[in-house]
Structure formats: structure tokens, C-alpha cells
Please model this.
Amino acid sequence: MKKIKLAFYSASGCSGCMLSFFDLEEFFISSERFSIVWAPMFTNSKLEDLEKIDKIDVTFIEGSIRLSEHEEIVKILREKSEKVVALGTCAVFGGVPGLSNFYSTEEILSEVFGSDKEVPKPRLLLDGKYELTLPEFRDEMRRVEEVIDVDHFVPGCPPSEDQLLKIIDFNFEEKWIVEKSSVCNVCPRKVEEIKVSSVKRAFERDDGRCFLIQGILCFGPLTPGNCEATCVKVNVPCRGCYGAFPNVRDFGAKVVDLLSSIAEKNIAEELSRKYPNLARVIYAYTLPSAIINKRVRKR
Amino acid sequence: MKIGLYICHCGRNIADVVDIKNLIGYFKDKVNVVRDHLFMCSEPAWEMIRSDVTNKLVDRVVIAACSPYNHEKFFRSALETAGLSKYLLEIANIREQCSWVHGKNKREATEKAKRLIEAAISKVKTLKPLDDLRFEVERSVLVIGGGIAGMTASLDLAKMGFKVYLVEKEPSVGGKLIKFDKIFPLNDCASCVVSSLMAEVANNPMIELITYAEVEEVDGSFGNFNVKVRKKQTYVDWEKCIGCGACTTVCPPKAWKPNEFDEGLSKRAAMYIVSPQAVPKKAVHDPELCVNCGKKKLGTRRFLRGGKEYLTPCEKACPTKAIDRSKSWNPEGELLNFNVGAIIVATGYKVMEKETFKEYAPHSPNVITALQFERILSPTGPTGGKVLRLSDGKKPKAISFISCVGSRDVRYHTYCSKVCCLYMLKQARLVKEREPEIDVYIHVIDVRAPGKDLEEYYIEARRMGIGVIRGKVGGIEELPNGRLRILGFDADLGMPVEVEVDLVVLATAIELPEDSKELARKIGVAVDPSGFLKEDHPKLRPVESTLSGIFLAGCCQGPKDVSETVAQAKAAAASVASLLSKEEIKVEPFIAKVNEEACSGCGICENVCPFNAIKVNEVAVVDERSCKGCGICASCPAKAIDIQGYSAESIIAEIDALVG
Ligand SMILES: Cc1cc2nc3c(=O)[nH]c(=O)nc-3n(C[C@H](O)[C@H](O)[C@H](O)COP(=O)(O)OP(=O)(O)OC[C@H]3O[C@@H](n4cnc5c(N)ncnc54)[C@H](O)[C@@H]3O)c2cc1C
Ligand code: SF4
Ligand code: SF4
Ligand code: SF4
Ligand code: SF4
Ligand code: SF4
Model:
């Protein structure tokens, strides 16, 4: 039997999505059906090795795209692969690393390296003899889809077991592997009618009813319910780690859209007072996929 | 996809500012057909578009002309007659939104016209062929409010063969007019005008008169509204009641309260008949006022020793045994449910209470509102029509009328209540006719008597010796002897004036009744900034509300006199009739459409729809009849809802073209 050739690549990701495959016994049980041809995370895979491969059946890409190196590699992978899967919320929507779009490249580098002076030069000589070229640090964090064509999207931070089980035969058709119903559908706090008349933070008194009704931001209605409402079950409001439903273009704008239709009065001022970093809350997982996807500076 | 672009000169309205040649050159290669015309709304231009479509040169149409509000329907008909879905049309408004406002800057106006046209082209590419929604029409009408407006409209419709449900809040129809003695400008008898109408609405077989009832809920839409009406419980079997009034005189004084019909100037009992002219003339029991004579609580029976049943004085008084207080109290009343094709709202007005105006000594019983004075002048009123003051029953030596109380006043209403000048003159004339020796003063800012017969009416009043003092009244003082001192200003003399009188009549402003606002909210019609119900267009659609299928008549739409009220009522009835006489109605298909694949079943849309038009079981389902296409449900968190014809895709395409 011909084995299915798989590749795994992690761009700006935490490796969690990829590792969740390794948490799955079914992955190992069916391991004679596939071979992993390139996966720098857990096999010895160099760029030269990738260039030598001529065909990959399915490539999983985790994380969002920031470095020139990420971009180069995913482009090569795209060329060689039958199917490319964006695995996890970072790859699909930009994820938590996408929040870096709120800052300029200079701000990020000087914050990380302490001062402008400490930022490593793009080309440097290591130990006085090894010439080293660092990948370029691009101006914004992008979704994989902005760089190459993506065939399948499997959001989640990380994706849940039921999603991975759906794709474990590596022969799936659906474009989006995600639950059709929302977190509210599986939330134990389920309610009949959601209306908002004031705003609270989660650390203020939680009376156990639906967070939104209490005025605490909860993104349950906007978020696919694969997580089985894990957060809400431990009394933490949903922050939308699965990103948006497939048709929604801009998660944060959708939050505002939703709030304005369920608010019984104007809560805008109260909202920005109670959540001074509102943009960071509503775009915690999806900023690079927003219509205004980074801080816009006056020129 | 073959796009045709038709650019209108609008005579010189557009062409003088926007360079049409330039536009034609610019779009020549971007669409399949470009044509211009001096007047796109003319018959030859219409024919030009139609034949392009018929000859298959074009299958989407963009017209660059005036606002779609003007001729969109006309242009659509060109597509429709050519056999194309009439909604594959988009209008770029290069007149109101371009040439008219950028006349000084021709070059930039032309550039803006390009953008507007590009946006329309981008949008038209995203449009899908749509068909009108077709609904059967229910040939019946709900009229809310039984004043002169509601009664006139009901009778006109009934005579044209429509079934009418006339719902009146009070136990009797008649509205304000039945309270008056005479009405300007002819000073004819109000009761003679109204009583015959009241009798007619009660007896017309096409009219179902539902009094002592209120509209609870309205669902559905034009052509077929589902209406729920709650009829309050009366405890009197109206089939048996003969309106003799025997029961209304037996309640003890503890069970009396100020009589609404006399504007609080007399008392009525817990058993009452609204007025001597009431239609239907039936008694009503007011359970909140009733003191449970003989400890017989509502909803119970009491037996005396010996087994004889105890009857309360009212039950005993009734010759036909129509009163049954042993019925248990049901504050909910009885719910009636029926369908109608259209609705006319005719809930009239209320006047502001005198208590609002602290500067006018409202605590004095000799300061009254004009509506109260109408009752004093009326032969059915508390004084039998004699001009007396109520504090001591004596004839006043002098009376002052104060105008614009709450009207034309930034603290309350900036509008003019329109009828007060004339009814003050009317009331003053009636006083003079009956008691010529009473001095009568009218304090006005100015007298407004425009139109046929009305200025003449004013001149006649002056001739009768009524003192008209021009100038605003600052305050009223009550003197120790109970007389009232008016502290005013005489603008003609240019100095302050003081007048001492025995009775003051305040012409308080006309307003929409509070519960009409609630009603408006329930049925979805808008209230305008003046506080009255909003007509769809003050000139072109003055009897239509903002919601199709709901019409307005009378003072609920704004202050007006009886002639205007009747004219509007007749216009509303005629509009309703012309629409309901068709077999089916066609409605624009711009309603919510659910993408069932994407719907998560979260129920938010059902929560937020103001018209109860969307229900969620597994997935959301839109009731086409009820959906108004308001777009609120498009906030769907899964983006499973689009408004047909205005999809997110279309709007984004337009925006991209405008800003791109
Ligand atoms: C003091 C005074 C004197 C006037 N004198 C004259 C005059 O001499 N000549 C003249 O031309 N005009 C006069 N007018 C104006 C005249 O009263 C109005 O033009 C006329 O009454 C308007 O009729 P309508 O049917 O619109 O309202 P209304 O007469 O107010 O009738 C409204 C009806 O609707 C009912 N209703 C209200 N709410 C509801 C509800 N929620 N559900 C069901 N039913 C409801 C009410 O009970 C009432 O029966 C005078 C006005 C005032 C204040
Ligand atoms: S909004 Fe949050 S708390 Fe409310 S039902 Fe949805 S997931 Fe549960
Ligand atoms: S006494 Fe009887 S018949 Fe007469 S008004 Fe009262 S309820 Fe009607
Ligand atoms: S009608 Fe006359 S009194 Fe009434 S508000 Fe207008 S101006 Fe004032
Ligand atoms: S709001 Fe959207 S997802 Fe939720 S039930 Fe309605 S259509 Fe479905
Ligand atoms: S568009 Fe949506 S919210 Fe508006 S009436 Fe229709 S279903 Fe209701």
C-alpha cells in the first residue's frame, strides 16, 4: 500500500497544535498508513531536504507568518503539496501572536532586546568566522492564507480531538473542519434570550447566569463550540479562541455588531470604560484577519 | 454578464456640472453598452433601455441619474417588460448627491460621478435575480380609535364593502367631539354631527364595533396582519343591558370618582354609562372603584339566612338582571383574534393638564382647561350648559382665555396646536351669546385663523365685543377673595396689563396620548420629533405611516380641526381601499434570507428582530410576511443572514469601488 506523505511546519506558532496530533492514540495506531516526509519540529528536516522532495500529499502549517523564512518555506510547501491545511487558530486567523500587529516592528524589537542597540544585525559574523544571515522581520503578522492558497482550515487553540479525528484519515473534503453550532449551544449557562443593559468585568460579582446577560463580555455566540465550553464551565467567559465562524470576515467587528443589536441602551461608553483595552479583547485571536488588521499610523 | 450604463443629463441639471462626454469615454470599455439621454425618465429613454434588454445587449442595468426615490420603479418596469428580473438594476445618484451639491466644482463633480457609477457597477455585478413576494390580501381593515376620524374612515370603508373592526378604548365611541356643544366655524351642533355617525357605526353590518378594548399585539404585514385585541371585562351582560341607567345612581358616594367624560368636573359611580349619548349605550362596572356593597366581593355569591341570595344595590336595581358581580374578576379580559389587510390608526389627542403650569395658579378650581370649559358650555355637562364657575356655582363677571399654554413654548412644545385660537374665539362667542354682560378677554401671542371662513369668524368675535389682548401672560395670582389676577403684557400698548377675572380658561397644548406611543411601538410605526405619529412623507404620503399597510387619520398625526380630520380620514380610507381591492399584493423582496448551512442556531436573530419575523428551531426561519428587511438580524454572529438585494457582498463591493 502506498503511504500518504505528510509534512508538518510550524511558523509563528507554539507547536501546541502539532503536538495535539501526538496526543492522539489514533494517530499512532494508523501510523503504518502514512509517512512523515518533512517535519523540522520532530524529525531532522533541513531546507535542503525539503527541496529534494518532489511531492507531498498533505501539509499541515501551524502558526502565522512573520519572518521572510516562514514565507519562503510555506511557498515551497505549497508548490509540492496536494493539500495544504492551516492547522490551528494562528494559521487560520493570526492567533495570539497576531496581537503584535498593534505595535510597529521597531517597538517590538526594542521591547524584546531591551534597546535599539541590542537588536541583532541582519548579517553578522559569529565567533569571528561563521557568516550568519537572519531572516527578515516583516512589518506585520499575516495569516497563512494571505501568503499561499490554503485548502482546508482547522481552527482551534489547539484544535480539539473531534476535529483531528475527522481528518486523521488524511482524506477529507470539507473546507472548514469546525463545529457548526456555537459555544452557547454547549454552555451550561444557556439562556432563552440574550439582552445586555450594563457592562461588568468577569472579576466583578458573577451571579452564574449567562455572562453576556450580566454584561460581561463573552464571545460564546460568535465562536464555534468544539471546545465544549471548557472556559465557561470553569467560570471564565469565552474569549473566542476558535476564531470566527467561516462566513465571518472580522471577528471584532462582529462582536461590536452583535453587542449593538442585543444592547437595550447605549453601552458604548461604559464598555470602553470597563474594558480600556477593548480592541485587544475582541481581537485577541484574530487581529490579522480584521478589516483594519494593524495599528494604522498617521503618515 | 452584460452591463448597460445609461447616463442622464436631466436637462441641464446634471449635464451643466458633470462632464457627460468624459463619463462616456471613461466607461466605454468598462461596460457593454453606454448611452446617454437628455431625460432618462422620458418614454423614449425607457424604450431605449427596454430594447437593449430585449435584444440581449444588456442583462444588468446601471442608471446614472437622480435619486432612486424618484424613478426607480419606472426604470424597473423597463427591465420587467423586457423579461428581466427588475431587481437587476442599480441607480447611481449623480444629481442630488453630485451635480446639485458640487455645482461650483465641475472637474471634481465629474470625478465623483465616476466613483458613484463605479460603485453602482460593482454592486450590480453582485445582484441576483429576485422576484416580488406575492401575498393574498385580507379584505378587512382594523381602525383603532372611534373619534370622528376613526368613525369616518370606518364608514367610508364599510360602504365600499370592506369588513371593518373598529376598536375603541372607551366604552363608547365619539371621541372628543361628543363632549362639545358647538363646533367652529359654523357653530353647528357637535352632537348633531357626531351622534348620527355614532349610530351608523353601531348599526352598519360591515362594522364590528369593539369598544372598551385595546389592541394588544399586531403581527404580520401589509395584506395580512394578525391582530390581537383585549376587551376589558364589564360585568354587565351587554346583550341584556338596555342602558336605562338605573344601576348608575345606586352606588354609595365612597364608590365615586371624577368623571372622565366631564373632564373631572363631575363625579361618576362604579357602575356608569359613559355619557347620555353613549354608543353603545351600555353600563360598565369599574372593579377598582367598587366598594363591594354588602361585603359581596367580586367573583363571589352571598346567601342570606333563609337561603335567599344577596344582591348588591346595582344588581338589584337592574330591571333586566344584566349585572353579574359573581363573575370572577379577570383583569386580563377577553382576547379577540382576527386578520386584517390594513390598519388605520386614529387615536386622536390629549390636552396637557393644567397642573404642569405652576405659574397659572393650577390649584385654583377657577382655573380650568379649555376642554373642561367645553363641558361647562355643553348642555349635557355639569352645569347643563350654563356659564357658571364651579367653585361656588356663581355666574362669573369676567372670564380670561390664555392661549398657547404649552404650545409655541420651548419648554414644552415648539409647535402650534393649531385649533386653540379658533376654539377660544368659539368659546368666547358662546359665552357672549348666552351672557352678554360677562366681560371676555383673550390673551394671545397672535391670532391664527388661516383659511376659509376662519378670519371672518375672528372678525365677528371682535365685533361681539370680545377683548383680544396681544401679549404673553406671565402669571396668574389667586386673590384672597378667590378672584384671579392675570399678569400680562399688552404688546399694542407696549406696557404690562393686569386683569381681574373670576374664571380663567387655559388653551393647553394638544399632544399624542401616552398610550398611543406604546401602541406605535407595538405596531412598529414611528413617532416624529414633535411627538405625534409620523407620516411617511408630509406632502406625497400624508396619510401613510412609516410602515406599509398602516395609515394615519386625525389628530394622532398632528393637531388639526374637524374639517382637516375628516379629510384625512377619508383619504386614508380611500388609500386603504385602493390597495385592498386587488387580489394579491406584491412586496419588494428585500427581506432577510438565512443561509442554513452557516446558521449555528444560536437564536440571537430571534432575540433581536423587532417584528417577531424570525424563529429558530434547528436553524433560523424567516416569516416572509412579517420581515420588514430592517437588517438588524444581519448582526448574526455566524453571518448566516443577508438582506436580499443588500447583501454584505454587495455593500462591500460598493464600498471597495468608492474608496478603492
Ligand atoms: C378644547 C377644544 C375644542 C375644539 N373645538 C373644535 C371646534 O370647535 N371645531 C373643530 O373643527 N375642531 C375643534 N377641536 C379639534 C377637534 O377636537 C379635533 O379635530 C377632533 O376631535 C379630532 O378627532 P380625532 O378622531 O382625531 O381624535 P379624538 O376626538 O381624540 O378621538 C380619538 C378616539 O380614539 C380613542 N383612542 C385613543 N387611544 C386609543 C387606543 N390606544 N386604542 C383605542 N382607541 C383609542 C379615544 O378614546 C377617542 O375616542 C377642538 C379641540 C379642543 C382641544
Ligand atoms: S454568551 Fe457565554 S455565558 Fe452566555 S450562553 Fe454563550 S457561552 Fe454561555
Ligand atoms: S340597570 Fe341594567 S339595563 Fe340599566 S343600565 Fe344598568 S345594567 Fe344596563
Ligand atoms: S392655535 Fe393659536 S393658541 Fe393654539 S398654539 Fe397655535 S397660536 Fe397658540
Ligand atoms: S443569529 Fe445567525 S446563527 Fe444565530 S440562529 Fe440566527 S441565523 Fe442562526
Ligand atoms: S430583517 Fe431580520 S430583524 Fe429585520 S424584520 Fe427581517 S427578520 Fe426581523
Remarks:
- Residues B 236, 241-247, 283, 317-318, 320, 322-323 surround iron/sulfur cluster (ligand 3) (CB under 6 Å).
- The mean pLDDT of chain B is 94.
- Chain B has five domains: 3-130, 133-232+335-349+515-584, 233-332, 350-511, 588-644.
